Structures are given as structure tokens and as C-alpha cells.
Amino acid sequence: MARFRTWVSIAVAGALGLSLAGCSSTGGKRAEDARKAQQAQGKAAVNTPRWTFAMITHSGDGDTFWDIVQNGAKQAAVKDNINFLYSHNDEAQQQAQLVDAAVDKKVDGIIVTLAKPDAMKAAVARAEKAGIPVITVNSGSEESKKFGALTHIGQDETIAGEAVGEELNKRGKKKALCVLHEQGNVGHEQRCAGAKSKFEGTMTNLYVEGTNMPDVQSAIEAKLQSDKSIDSVVTLGAPFAATAVKAKDDAGSKAEIETFDLNEKVAQGLQDGSLGFAVDQQPYLQGYEAVDLLWLYKYNANVLGGGKPVLTGPQIVTKDQAAELEEYAKRGTR
């Protein structure tokens, strides 16, 4: 009788497994994703020491792009049993001081952006002198190796810009405006220069103060009012895309708005046609891989890239992909 009950239990379990397998692939995947996410909350997947990693970026206050980077870094930190510290300052000297502070705390690894590399060079050198491994992320791919970092994770800004220029050509654009919202950011200059190098039309740069959105809007609006032949406006960050759309509408312009980076609003804009395309550099992946690669280096002396950047972009996102990516953007991972 006991043996019979055992076989019945096995049969029921098998039938249940088959019924679950028969669910839609989307529903099953979502359920599995939710289960894994729940399991990951506060639970490490490894038994390595609880090292402390510090990420120091050039982000300003309220920049949602860096929220996505942090989401990736924090998820990897949970998995890798890492104590994760995050700090930021959009002033280069203050960012360098934050790196110095992390060195003084004797952290086990540092992740840093090099938007303004000259100001960061000495701080990075001090970290390396202290024996702290450094990974650069997001900006500074050309300087990363020179500064002695293990590797760089992000998109090549010149290549990303070139992808924009080529996409504008496909769309038949003739005159474009590239809006730079952070003066001195070498990555932004590289994006616009890369786009201009491949664009068969005419592209001009417009410098704005990114911390003042009303001024950003008025500057773009004035440019569009004064030159009706502009048929494309390229912004270099997702928060500026919606502002550019407002400026276009108020100016009575027919220009198409494109943007670097992706978030929920950008995904919605692609779907409703207020935006033409976006360039996704996958910030979640940048944060996640930076922590994971530091852990791999500490645990197993692994280094990826072979002296070259580990690229997370660019990916041109259009209306066709926007609906799927919006779901991920809502949860803060795209």
C-alpha cells in the first residue's frame, strides 16, 4: 500500500510538471523570473568573503539613468555577497575626492566613471597604488587602459555615434541637431562627432545646461524656430527626449526626435511615434557586469576584454522593439 501511494505521488508530480511545462512560454518565463528575483532578495549565491565594492559616478542628482545602473550593480552585489557602496557628483573634482574617500576606507574594489578623465587620473592612480582593483564603466573607454584599470564596461561612444549617423541616413534625414547637455563630458563630444562622421547630411552641435530643463527646452525651441530645415534632433540622454518633444511642438517643427538611452518614457514615446529611435547602451548590464567582474577578479583573478572594452551597446531601438522593452523598463532594468 505504501509503495502504491509512492507511485501515485510520483505520477501526480509528473503530471503537474507537464501541466506547468504546457503553460505559455511568456507566462512561464515571467513566473520563473519572479521566482528567481524573490530568491535573490538578500541571499548570496556564493560563500566568498563579504568584500566591499564602491561605485563612484559623475551622475547629477535625479538622473534616472544611474538608477538603472545601480539596480544592476545591487542585484549582482546580492548574488556575489558584496557590500555595495554608491556615491556620485557631477563636479569632477568632487568625484575624485569621493574616490579618495573610498581608498581611505580600504574598500576591496572600485568602479568609476571617467567622464572628465583628466580630473580623475590621480585618484585612480592612488587606488591602484593602494592595491585596490579598479574597473571603469560607462565613460572613459579610451583612458581606462592608460589609467591602469582592469577593464572598461560600456559602449564605445564613437561607435554609438556612428550608429546614429547611419540610422539618420536610413531615415532620409538631411539636417540634424545634436544636443549636448554636459559641457566637458568627452563621451558626449564623441557621440556627436561619431554621428557627424557618418551622417551624409549636415549636423550641428547645441550646448545646453542639462541641470536646467526649462532652459534646455527654450534653447532647442529657439533653434528649431530659427531653422525650419532641421529635420532631426538628437538628445544624449533619455530625460532630455521628452523636453525636446515639447520644444519641437512649441516651435511648430516637424523634426523627428531621437535619443541616446532608454527608459519607460522613451519606450512609450517610440510606440506613440513622438520619438523616432533610441540608442540603448544597457545601463543595467553596465552596473551588473562591473560588480560581477570585480568579484571574479577577487575570487579567481579573471579579467575580461583582453585589453579592449567590454561593450554593452549600442543597440538601435525602434517602435518594433519598444513594447517588449517597456516591460523591462518599468521594472528598472532597461
Helical segment count: 13
- Using only C-alpha atoms, the radius of gyration works out to 23 Å
Alpha carbon gap, first and last residue: 55 Å
Helix content bin: 40-55%
Strand content: 15-25%
Q: Strand order, biggest sheet?
A: 2-1-3-4-5-11
Succession of helices and strands: HHEHEHEHEHEHEHEHEHEHEHEEH
Shape, per Cα inertia axes? elongated
Largest sheet: 6 strands, parallel
**Parts with pLDDT < 50 across at least 5 consecutive residues:** 1-40
From the helix content, strand content and strand pairing, which structural class follows? Answer: alpha/beta
Count of individual beta strands? 12
Average of per-residue pLDDT values? 89
What does this protein look like?
The protein has helices at residues 2-21, 25-40, 64-79, 92-104, 117-129, 141-144, 157-170, 186-198, 213-226, 238-251, 264-272, 283-300, 319-330, and strands at residues 52-57, 83-88, 109-112, 134-137, 152-154, 175-180, 202-207, 232-235, 256-260, 278-280, 310-311, 315-317. With 334 residues, the chain is α/β, with parallel strands linked by helices. Strand 8 (232-235), helix 10 (238-251) and strand 9 form a beta-alpha-beta unit. The termini are far apart. 47% of the residues are buried.
Break the fold down into its secondary structure elements and pairings.
Layout lengths: L1 H20 L3 H16 L11 E6 L6 H16 L3 E6 L3 H13 L4 E4 L4 H13 L4 E4 L3 H4 L7 E3 L2 H14 L4 E6 L5 H13 L3 E6 L5 H14 L5 E4 L2 H14 L4 E5 L3 H9 L5 E3 L2 H18 L9 E2 L3 E3 L1 H12 L4
Parallel strand pairs: 1-2, 1-3, 3-4, 4-5, 5-11, 6-7, 6-8, 8-9, 9-10
Antiparallel strand pairs: 10-12
